[in-house]
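Field log, afternoon session.

UNIT: design team B
ACTIVITY: writing a sequence onto a fixed backbone
BACKBONE:
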């Protein structure tokens, strides 16, 4: 069973009325032409609104990225001001405590804890303020 579709013939005639070109289109297109045109207009405006939304969200993303970059650069400046002398004193106090523990263990006849780089970097490897800010 094949459906027979209703078709409407539209004839285009030029100014001299000597050339005509017939085109057959479904009758439903002719009957509902207002709805079809309204649908195209709605789709066009939807696309335009989507473009404006994407432009706006892109601007917001750029602003957020700039804020993040500024915050990271401020944090980098704050990290560059680390007091290495306090770190050296802290590591030395750890070494002194470890030495005291090892002396206590040796006095009891136990094996001492190995102190080589056990608590972190050795004193030679701690960077100065100038070396840190060079990064």
């Amino acid at each position: 069973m094949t459906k027979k579709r209703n078709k409407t013939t539209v004839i285009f005639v030029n100014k001299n009325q000597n050339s005509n070109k017939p085109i057959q289109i479904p009758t439903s297109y002719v009957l509902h032409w207002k709805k079809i045109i309204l649908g195209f207009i709605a789709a066009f405006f939807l696309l335009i609104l989507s473009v404006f939304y994407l432009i706006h969200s892109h601007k917001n993303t750029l602003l957020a990225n700039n804020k993040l970059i500024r915050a990271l650069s401020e944090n980098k400046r704050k990290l560059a001001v680390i007091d290495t002398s306090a770190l050296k004193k802290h590591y030395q106090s750890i070494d002194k405590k470890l030495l005291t523990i090892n002396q206590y263990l040796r006095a009891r006849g136990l094996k001492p804890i190995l102190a080589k780089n056990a608590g972190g970097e050795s004193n030679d490897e701690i960077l100065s303020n100038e070396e840190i800010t060079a990064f």
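LOG NOTE: The chain has two domains: 7-79, 84-133.
NEXT ACTIVITY: expression trials, pending approval
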